[in-house]
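Supplementary Methods, section 5.1.

A reviewer requested that the exact input to the structure prediction be made available. We therefore reproduce it here, unchanged from the version used in the analyses.
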Amino acid sequence: MSRDSDKALKTLHKDLGRIGQLERGTRYVSRPLVAPGLALAFMMVVGVAAFVVMGQQPLGFVVIAAAIVGAYMAVNIGANDVANNMGPAVGARAMTLGAALVVAAIFETAGALLAGGDVVGTVSRGIIAPETVAEPQVFIWAMFAALLAGALWINLATWIGAPVSTTHSIVGGVMGAGIAAAGFAAVNWPMMGRIAASWVISPVLGGVVAALFLAFIKSRIIYVPDRIAAARVWVPVLIGVMGGTFATYLSIKGLERVIDIDLGTAALIGLGVAVVLTVAMRPVIRRQSAGLDNSKKSLKTLFAIPLVVSAALLSFAHGANDVANAIGPLAAIVHAVQEGGAAEAVAIPLWVMAVGGLGLSVGLILFGPKLIRMVGSEITRLNAMRAYCVALAAAIVVIIASWLALPVSSTHIAIGGIFGVGFYREWYHERVLNENRTEPALPPVERRRRKVVRRTYFLTIIAAWVVTVPMAATLSAGLFVLLNLITL
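The structure derived from this sequence is encoded token-by-token as follows.
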């Protein structure tokens, strides 16, 4: 009897072990499905909300479908675009990934709801002429196709790990739908030429400005005999520059809904903030630096808090400025259904703005960590000082672009800044090695191995940037033709 009991227990133990392995395998397989499932649930909730608000309208089903696609677009923007703001801070270890997700979600949503664009051009800032899509059905399907094509392309880019411009994605979508609807003559080609030029201008400006700030920090703070004394002089100035830059940036880009401020007034506001902040931070930096040893590691602690603040402010400004990429076409569809046609500009309903703001946060939390890690640590190694240069360059270049009326991408600027500091470090190390070399030169293979910028990511990202507008346009044109065939 005892032998039978032992045998039964062994059999039970084996069966339980198999069940345990099956449960672990099931959890492992189902884990990747959790985030898409939650995103789908969010889109369904948006669809229900759209039904409650617009379900009784003629063509209400179109608004419901567009709201679901708009939520999908917002989720993808949150997954892809927001990484550019938080990636440097996480890569520099100024904040954890979890803290970055929380801060970005709060400030992205706040920026979208409190200072989001009050008016959006129904043809995406003049990409196609309104009279070419004046018929309501043509206009509605053009905007729907543009929105869905932009979302699909951003989703694919996020999956392959390429931070692309959401602005260029939606512009490409509108262009493709416009061509399919009314031919090539419908497109504002001079505007498209300026956008194509921004593919080069945005990252180059971002990289140059970030590299210049890093060169300044190296020459004035890092490579001097008394680093702490130099930091007490220059770190308050750099924080003042950061504060003044973001004050100007937010005045131009983030507060348009509250008050209309021209560039000159915004620059004066920024100058005032810079002076006040520089004076106020001197005693703070003096206290923070007390007792620190004369090392690079000590310097990094003085840049950590400014870096976190800059990341939060960039997220606020991004939510205010780029939420239109998610819900601009949706707002245009809502207006067309209610008013019976296209218009040069439409007001964005609050519920549509909420879809965009919440969608950014949902996408960031569910899918953002992958690109945050890539932007923050896999392109090149960032510390607090290098990441600070990237954040500051992003704000400065956007202000310059606004002054010059250039349609630049915040994504391209931020990624260009990361490449800029990486390539500057390579150049600096190479120069120092050449000047102080006492050993034979390294073999070419070893020199390539020691490069601090990963060329694979560089080529992948550049390729994704180049094909964004053509791919979004092609997808949108195909979707527009398909929608028209279905609804004939």
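Residues 25-30 have pLDDT under 50 and may be disordered. These observations are discussed further in the main text.
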